[in-house]
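My main concern about presentation is that the manuscript never shows what a single data entry looks like. An entry of this sort, consisting of the sequence and the corresponding backbone structure tokens, reads as follows:
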Amino acid sequence: MNPKTRFALIALLALLAVVAGFIAAGYKYRQQFVVPGISLSESTRASEQLLALTLADASAVSQPLSQWRGKLLVVNFWATWCPPCREEMPGFSRLNTKFASKSVQFVGIAIDHADKVKEYSLQTPTSYPLLVGSPGLMPIMSGLGNTSGGLPFTVIIGRDGTLRQTRLGLWKESALEDILADLAKES
């Protein structure tokens, strides 16, 4: 094979790889999200464990997470002492209101003390429920991909109960809005 033909073949293969990448990127939110280093069965088990939880809200009323099965569920692990957690919550509240008619539900799970969560919820109301968790939730968070135990940590669970997306760290409202708009279209 002469050098010009070889170069043309390599260029064609590179172009095909780029086109395939763009096509695959168009489907990135339609496919189940798999956390690097976490098997599909582990993430499924962790999302089922999460949905099986019953936690108290800021008023000490028990709230089973299973009440939101069938919705696109955005679960945010946070704490009152965590500045990035507090920073993203107003945007989450706006998105919860915006996407409520599309069967999207946000839930905040504070890894914190109940009295601090209640005080925070009175000072800074949210349009979504704030539940009180404990460090005992770390194995579930780890199974969902947060092996470092950092906060904030947010997961999106599909209507079918599968883990769709995760984010460790602050999630900008505009970025999350784009993802929710795409996921909300799925039935």
Q: What stands out?
A: The longest strand covers residues 72-78. The mean pLDDT is 85. The longest helix spans residues 3-26. Residues 102 and 184 are 6 Å apart (CA to CA).
